[in-house]
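In the laboratory, one determines a bound structure by crystallizing the protein with its ligand and collecting diffraction data. In a computational setting the workflow is compressed into a single prediction: the sequence and the ligand go in, and a structural description comes out. We illustrate the idea with zinc ion.
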Amino acid sequence: MFTDSHCHLDFIEFDACRDELIQRCAILNINRFIVPGITAKRWPRVLELCQKYSNALPCLGLHPWWIAKATENDLILLEQLINRHDLAAVGEIGIDGAIDNIEKQTDYFVKQLHIAKKHSLPVVVHHRKSHHLIVPELKKASLEKGGVIHAFSGSYQQAKAYIDMGFKLGIGGTITYPRAIKTIKTVKKLPLDSILLETDAPAMPLEGFQGEVNSPEKVVDVFQQLCSIREESPELLQQAIEQNLQQLFKLD
Ligand SMILES: [Zn+2]
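The predicted complex, in structure-token form:
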């Protein structure tokens, strides 16, 4: 069984085809989806979707790309929703070094880390050109449940900084691009207990599908690519990834 540990099933790209998509995923043995929320405005959609599809698990968070519009009230609402719903994690949160507003991004990242800690939840972390900003904040927050560094790309040393804090790394379509030499080299060496699979659909299309809407179905292709990079058998990899999911998120 496969899990797409990071896909935005609530996005409008899937509005016209969501039922069929989930059916097609089931045929491919993709039977679980972790769905991160990105803005307070969209949280109700994520919760609604995860009520409709029992194999879709919600996370709620304020994503750094939309942080300019975020308010303290959103953080209050986040805590209220955590108390009322069974969330898999707080996310998608993070710091994106390629856009401005780093100060507010960091402020809201840290505040959401504290909320996750208070409620004993893991976090789903977005990074881009920001390992140097994220690692120190995660160290300070010292989350008991850890979390996942979504769409990880970087060196083994950068990966290790997260793994040492008990974090998993979300491995996605990046490894299908031959030019991602550094990340592929890192993924080859990662400890088995640190790997999760994801697509980030509808974003981050795989190599050969640039410009297209990405789909959670592609988690199988990411897995195949992972198998070609790693030395373990596909069975062992699949088993380890399932264990990692069970360990990180509250799963049945
Ligand atoms: Zn995402």
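Residues 6, 8, 36, 92, 150, 200 surround zinc ion (CB under 6 Å). Keep in mind that any predicted model is a hypothesis to be tested, not a measurement.
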